[in-house]
């Protein structure tokens, strides 16, 4: 997906992916994967409420998001006043233990993630088309520090069911992409809906993985 696609989505507020509440799989699994105090990278973070939950539970948060509008909305809607600083290719919005860099994930370099302990991917990998997703996974594998652990949430649906995003990501792709670098444990797979749209014969499932 080119950046113009996402900027347009944010400008028109076509953000069906945004959830008004904390993701239930984050609540259920995250503290079992990573202990509070850890610095958690949230790639393609949007204005996700999940970042607030992480902060409330004592994690430090580092989000990266293409859309400045998303970052501004995150701080405004949560009545938070960030300090804004230009950092190379990125514009930093920071407040206490929360830092969001506005800019392109693909411009990050290894030193940007040097103090990351963990990462949380909800609707990031599945937001990207196949070739871009491969680059995304490769970059995480190369740039995340050795000890980093992840919680990854993906979706699956049959070929031809709908167009992405969100894209369907099969277990095999997670295995091929992350398997060389991390041990992968699928914690759960259950029926879900895309952006809350329920159909009679719903073929969509959601998977959550621990990467260690
Ligand atoms: C499907 S949304 C998910 C947002 C968030 N993770 C959530 O759960 O609500 C994908 C987000 O990735 C952002 N994005 C897309 N490509 C990006 C890139 N190359 N670098 C940084 N952010 C990007 C989009 O602007 C959008 O906010």
UniProtKB/TrEMBL annotation:
Biased composition (Polar residues): 191-205
Cellular localisation: Cytoplasm
Keyword Methyltransferase annotated: yes
Keywords, ordered alphabetically: Cytoplasm, Methyltransferase, S-adenosyl-L-methionine, Transferase
GO BP term (any one): methylation
Gene3D superfamilies membership: Vaccinia Virus protein VP39
Similarity remark: Belongs to the class I-like SAM-binding methyltransferase superfamily. TPMT family.
Protein name: Thiopurine S-methyltransferase
Source species of the chain: Idiomarina abyssalis
Phylogenetic placement of the source organism: Bacteria, Pseudomonadati, Pseudomonadota, Gammaproteobacteria, Alteromonadales
């Amino acid at each position: 997906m080119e950046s113009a696609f996402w900027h347009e989505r944010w400008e028109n507020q076509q953000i069906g992916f945004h959830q008004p509440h904390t993701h239930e799989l984050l609540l259920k699994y995250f503290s079992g994967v990573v202990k509070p105090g850890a610095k958690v990278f949230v790639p393609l973070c949007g204005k996700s409420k999940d970042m607030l939950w992480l902060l409330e539970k004592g994690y430090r948060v580092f989000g990266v998001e293409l859309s400045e509008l998303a970052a501004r909305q995150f701080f405004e809607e949560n009545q938070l006043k960030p300090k804004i600083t230009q950092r190379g290719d990125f514009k930093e919005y920071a407040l206490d233990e929360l830092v969001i860099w506005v800019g392109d994930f693909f411009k990050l370099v290894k030193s940007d993630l040097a103090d990351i302990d963990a990462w949380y991917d909800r609707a990031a990998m599945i937001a990207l088309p196949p070739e871009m997703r491969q680059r995304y996974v490769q970059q995480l594998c190369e740039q995340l520090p050795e000890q980093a652990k992840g919680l990854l949430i993906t979706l699956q649906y049959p070929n031809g069911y709908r167009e992405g995003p969100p894209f369907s990501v099969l277990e095999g792709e997670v295995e091929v992409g992350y398997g060389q670098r991390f041990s992968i444990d699928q914690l759960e797979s259950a029926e879900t809906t895309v952006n809350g749209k329920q159909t009679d014969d719903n073929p969509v499932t959601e998977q959550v993985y621990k990467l260690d």
